[in-house]
Design a protein that fits this description.
The chain is α+β, with helices and mostly antiparallel strands. A 3-stranded antiparallel β-sheet has the order 1-2-3, with helices on one face. It is built from 1 helix and 3 strands; from the N terminus they run αβββ.
């Protein structure tokens, strides 16, 4: 082969290699973003379920305007699923914190995708 053909072959291999590396990076970033969105959606669903518990009377299995004693088990919520693992912490009778840790590692490639949701006493305006 001539020098021009070898040069074109080498350039084509380099361009293909860069394209594949860029595609892999974009796929990984997409997976991280999708996992972050899923953890946030799960945390919001858990927060909604916790608010239902908060507002429901004790006779119906709720908290009667308190989060005291609330656990994931009382909400029939699994501690982990395909998106990540979740913890629910009762701060006081009127506030809880929900932490979610995803299954994908974030941009740092060492820490999982994390999200925290806090719920406090709702303000109802008549």
């Amino acid at each position: 082969m001539g020098q021009t053909q070898i040069l074109m072959l080498v350039l084509a291999i380099i361009v293909i290699g860069i394209s594949v590396a860029g595609g892999i990076t974009m796929f990984n970033m997409s997976a991280v973003t999708a996992n972050r969105d899923a953890v946030v959606a799960d945390s919001q669903a858990l927060a909604s379920t916790a608010m239902q518990y908060y507002k429901k009377p004790t006779e119906m299995g709720g908290g009667n305007r308190t989060f005291t004693g609330l656990t994931l088990d009382k909400l029939n919520w699994p501690a982990s699923n395909v998106n990540g693992s979740y913890t629910l912490t009762v701060v006081d009778a009127q506030n809880i914190t929900i932490n979610g840790a995803g299954v994908e590692t974030g941009v740092s490639c060492s820490m999982p995708v994390n999200g925290t949701t806090g719920i406090g006493t709702p303000t109802i305006i008549p």
